[in-house]
Amino acid sequence: MKKQIYDVIVIGGGAAGLLASALAAEQGFSTLLIERNEKTGRKLRITGKGRCNVTNNCRPREVIDNIPTGGRFLCSAMNAFSPEKVMAMFEAMGVPLKTERGSRVFPVSDHAGDIVGALNKRVRKAGVELLQAKAEEIETEEGRVSGVRTDKGHYLGRRVLLCTGGMSYPLTGSDGSGYSMAQKLGHSLIEPKASLVPLEIAGNDCPDMQGLSLKNVAITITDGGKKPVYQDFGELLFTHFGVSGPLILSASAHLKDYEHKHYRLSIDLKPALDEKTLDARLLRDFSQQANRDYSNCLGGLVNKLMIPVIVRRSEIPPATKVNSITKQQRRRLLELLKGFTLDIEGPRPVAEAIITSGGVDCGEINPKTMESKLVPGLYFAGEVINCDGYTGGFNLQIAWATAYAAASHFE
User: Contact 147/156 with Cβ under 8 angstroms?
Assistant: First the structure.
């Protein structure tokens, strides 16, 4: 009996793989989806804290502006499958969507499982054949893709779409195996690094405030130059190793050169108050607590977990009576509240990152079709490509757009 030759073999059942395999099968291509996990979409299920930030409700140009690595490469794909089209697609698939702050798009239900469920339903309806196996090598014959070798045998295919993700959250299947498969076929790899990742901070201040979440604070990150590297407003979290939270994850995407630059984080704890107004506030608070110890009068200004650190940093003896605090000491406290600085040592390991920066070199991929320029019949989609964006749904938009580009150009 002659062994079946699939028109399309998709490696990786994440966001890009699920969409691309469904689109391929709907066009009449016999399609095999290889996924190593028992269930597809494992990483997709935990994105956006389990809510799934599907895309960003903005124009393609704005998406490109929020993709610092590979943005230009993605222009064609983003215009062909814009956020507007992505949203319309999921609505048509029975998943109502809503737009929140920062134009972030989520399912109305706030359940990532609804997105995964809709994609799985579409995959089944399209007739995609699903194989639970680990892809080990993409095979070629006379320089062209011929199939995939897995831990469960060889599967012949005229086209192979590689969308195995990066190296973040390896327990979901993103273990970097796609990189090695691409390299074996001659593709260049931009070194994978963590992006959208918590940051490690020098010293004991963060461990002393572990678990403290600060809302409505402003941050500025500098690298010793004249201009800030990053500025934003929002929420952050102190941890045993440093800092995390939405502000920090967004900031990390802008910090690329830890080896040669010294990054410093400055937190404005009172961004709504200018220095004059804050100083008046300090004078008022101090006058109302004139006979109390300094360490006992900061409860109205900062969280109790932060008080010992503020006292230590201000270098005002904790037992100092408030009515004896000098103008110079008050100034030191004010500067600390407006600029609580922390020295960044580097990012947490890539396994803790939301996404991976780096991957298969964009210069070796056709930006319109996502087909390899080196190996006919080999295509790429999603995080395995050297493209990554900021937080806000941009990385999933990359997955949808590249999957659509590839599946739309199978011939």
Answer: yes
